[in-house]
């Protein structure tokens, strides 16, 4: 059994950018700053202690108009420096505060990455929101991208008053990314398929139909297992790491944030958040299975997984123009001038970020182009 566990675990790996894309420096007065990113007055750089004894780096982006806070768990082959501009843009366009963090062993966070450490990492970030910034659980939206869906759903399954969850190119489990298994094995990691029915708040699933790293059937099945579904977004032609470049991404995400903001939803609220549950963007069978909510005990899990590289420059340029057009046409009234102007940097920002690794979900020793 031990040999089997080692063999399976060896097929998964974390891919923190090496070298890290940023450094953390302490200014006079004790304030921390990140190097190699644009300095902003509304961003706090933090170092957070985890229960596993590591110290992770986080960035809290403040928006004065925000009533909700997004806790963002990024993908496998990225770090905080690469995600920094995207976080700032999302804070503006979604009108949210946003806390992003690096997993243990990523960026300037100490320690070695592992599945268990990612659970401790997101708990430290969540605790920071409660204790340092006074954010209430019911005002927090958890956002998990790809492998980040693992810590996101682990935490969400244990919170009863969470406002909402966003799953971006999520995985059913680590093993299911590689093999079409029909059941959950004890040695599997990030068992999202077993945790999603325990989430009691609205869930938005976003997945590209042409994802060749994590097939979009993962997103579809997770959505079908949601207790409280929100209209999903299946981005036609979208791959694993380019969904932010499609105009429907930011448009649909804004619609979701607006809906949960207006709902004022608490644990005991009845009914669905959307009146369009049975009409997802790309047709799919809709089966809702309600299951009782229970606390999920922690189990020992092996070590991890993740993502793929971006598409062509031509596609990104086309997506950039499309995003600009959507923002100008849909937000002329309700977006502040700063937000309208800043979207012009969206495409350039995404081109500069290298968020994925082409071999991240392949077995050790596999070759790929």
From TrEMBL:
Region (Disordered): 268-340
Residue span(s) of domain AB hydrolase-1: 70-170
UniProt biased composition (Basic and acidic residues): 276-327
Secretion signal, residue range per the UniProt entry: none
InterPro entries: AB_hydrolase_1, AB_hydrolase_fold
GO molecular function: aminopeptidase activity
Entry keyword set: Aminopeptidase, Hydrolase, Protease
Database matches in PANTHER family: ALPHA/BETA HYDROLASE DOMAIN-CONTAINING PROTEIN, SERINE AMINOPEPTIDASE, S33, ALPHA_BETA HYDROLASE
Protein name in the entry: Serine aminopeptidase, S33, alpha/Beta hydrolase
């Amino acid at each position: 059994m031990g040999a089997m566990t080692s063999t399976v675990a060896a097929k998964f790996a974390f891919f923190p950018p090496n070298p890290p894309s940023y450094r953390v420096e302490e200014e006079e007065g004790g304030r921390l700053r990140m190097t190699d990113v644009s300095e902003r007055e509304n961003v706090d750089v933090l170092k957070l202690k985890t229960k596993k004894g590591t110290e992770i780096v986080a960035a809290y982006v403040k928006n004065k108009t925000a009533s909700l806070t997004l806790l963002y768990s990024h993908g496998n082959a990225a770090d905080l420096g690469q995600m920094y501009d995207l976080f700032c843009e999302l804070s503006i366009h979604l009108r949210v505060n946003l806390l992003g963090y690096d997993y243990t062993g990523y960026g300037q966070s100490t320690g070695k990455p592992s599945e268990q450490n990612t659970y401790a990492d997101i708990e430290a970030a969540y605790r920071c929101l409660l204790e340092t910034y006074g954010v209430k659980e019911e005002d927090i939206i958890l956002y998990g991208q790809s492998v980040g869906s693992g810590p996101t759903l682990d935490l969400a399954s244990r919170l009863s008053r969470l406002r909402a969850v966003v799953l971006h190119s999520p995985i059913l489990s680590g093993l299911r990314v590689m093999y079409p298994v029909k059941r959950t094995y004890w040695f599997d990691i990030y068992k999202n398929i077993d945790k999603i029915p325990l989430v009691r708040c609205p869930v938005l699933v976003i997945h590209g139909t042409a994802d060749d790293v994590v097939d979009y059937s993962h997103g579809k099945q997770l959505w079908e297992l949601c207790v409280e579904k929100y209209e999903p977004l299946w981005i036609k032609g979208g791959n694993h790491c380019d969904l932010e470049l499609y105009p429907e991404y930011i448009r649909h995400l804004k619609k979701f944030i607006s809906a949960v903001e207006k709902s004022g939803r608490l644990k005991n609220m009845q009914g669905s958040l959307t009146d369009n549950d049975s009409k997802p963007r790309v047709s799919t069978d809709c089966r809702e299975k309600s299951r009782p909510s229970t606390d999920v005990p922690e189990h020992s899990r092996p070590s991890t997984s993740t993502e793929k590289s971006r598409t062509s420059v031509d596609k990104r340029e086309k997506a950039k123009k499309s995003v600009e057009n959507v923002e100008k046409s849909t937000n002329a009234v309700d977006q502040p001038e700063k937000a309208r102007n800043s979207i012009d940097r969206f495409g350039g920002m995404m081109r500069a970020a290298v968020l994925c690794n082409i071999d991240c979900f392949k077995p050790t020793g596999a070759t790929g182009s």
